[in-house]
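Subgroup meeting minutes
Present: P.N., E.W., G.H.
Scribe: E.W.

1. P.N. recapped why we're keeping a running log of single-chain structure predictions: easier to compare across weeks, and new members can see raw inputs and outputs side by side.
2. G.H. added today's entry (101 aa).
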Amino acid sequence: MKFLVQTVVILTVLATPVISFAQANSTVTREQVRADLIQLEQAGYHVGDGDNTNYPADIQAAEARVAAQNGASSYGGVVSGTSASGAPAPVTGLQPIYFGQ
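Output recorded in log:
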C-alpha cells in the first residue's frame, strides 16, 4: 500500500508541469506584438508614461485610431440596442405567494 501511495505521489509530481504549462493557442509572434505597440505609440498612447488615470479610455481611443488607419473595426466594440432582461412580468391580478404549488 505504501508503495502504491508513493508511486501515485511521484507520478502526480512529474505530471503537474505538463498539465499546468500555460500555453496560448494563438500564433501571435513577438514581432507582431512589438509592431502593435509601435502602432499604438504612433496613435498617441505611450506605455509607461506614469499617467494611468485614464488608462482604459486612453488605450481604447488609441486602438480605435489604429483600427481606423488600418481600415478595420476595433477589438469587440459596443453594439447599440436595448435589452429588457430582468423586467418583471406584468401582474394581472393579486395572487398568493405560493400560487400553483
